[in-house]
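Subject: sequence -> structure tokens, single chain

Hey, anyone have a minute? Need the predicted structure for the following. Not urgent.
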Amino acid sequence: MSNEMKAQFEALKRDTRYGAPKAAWVKETRAALLSDISQNKKTAHTAQPSWSVSFSYLFPQSMLAPVRSLAVVALVIGLAVGGWLTSVSASTNSLPGDLLYGVKLASEKTQLTVAKVTGNKESAVQISLKSASNRASEIKQIAKKQPKEVQKVKESLEKNLSDAAEDVADMRQTDVTKAAALAKEMTETTAVISGNLRDAAKEVEKTEEGNEEATKEIVEASKTVEDAEIEAIGVVVEGNPEEAKELIAKKTESLLGENEEAKLELEQLEKSLEEKKTASEEGEETATEESIVVEEVLATSTVPEVVSTTTPAGEMEEGVIEKLEETSKIAKDQTLQIDEGAKETLILSEDQQLQEAVEKLKQLGDIKEETQEAIGELKEQLNIEPEQPPVEEESPQEPTEEPVVEEEPVQTEAPEAIAEIEETVSE
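Reply:
Had a minute. Here:
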């Protein structure tokens, strides 16, 4: 209490003009004042903050009730989305057959759908290319252990590339520069995909089952990827000719590198074919000499003739070697065509005839595919031969196990004839 107020109270106590207050009234008034002061202190401690009071005036309870319900729903959705995002993150490295592989595909499809709905072509192309890259990586990983799954993944890869190409084509109609930038990104991605598919093809060759079908699927996928890459280079030609020249040179160099690998494969296959041919010729000479001896022995023998239908181990079927030699020659000529075509492509590019150079790249891609098919045929035919001897060893034993009653005398005398032939041959 201030000194001034105290002085006023003292003055009132000394003022007797209105008479002195009764003692009972003073006591009651004093008690009432003390009670009010005590009550005011409690109210001051429990009073709401000013901001809370203001908030309650602005947003009454009737308005806050539905907001609380929305907040609860938002919390539930947030938890659900959080769980979904966790599953998506965990599915990143999943492969066909894994539990979370479906989540991985669904996530990619959702991202692509959102990009298309919002009209973001650039994002849609990038998502499709990323998905295609994922499929190629999956093929590389499952080619050896799960060759039968290759077809489904390959179809998905082709769909991803098709989606990307369509979006680039749409953007090409409105903004050639942006389309060229996306097309360049597409050529970079397809180059990586092609490398993964080549590795996958090598892995499939090591498998015992599913080899032929899986190899076919990978070859088809490789052709699709290469066509998409060359088409993308054509888009870059329109929007950025200088970058297109670099891409043409890079693609030509890649074709030449693959062509050199094809030449080495053909050299090895030609050596193997020559060995088969030599073995076949030696087998024919040996068979002719033995046939003469057998005829001489049987001419003086009373034992019925035993005809052997067994093919010598090194001998191939009649006409097969000639066919393989022709296939090898065609493939070798095709590698020379690729070398010459690559030179022509570079010359066209230097002369600023970029569209013509792109068309030449397409032709070289077709020739390369034919060469790979020829090499695949040679591998298939030459790889069958080493598996024949074990089968041939078992086949002569089968007739002796069959209980043929009518030829029992012939079977008992046949060993004597064979022993007689072997003795004559050794002499």
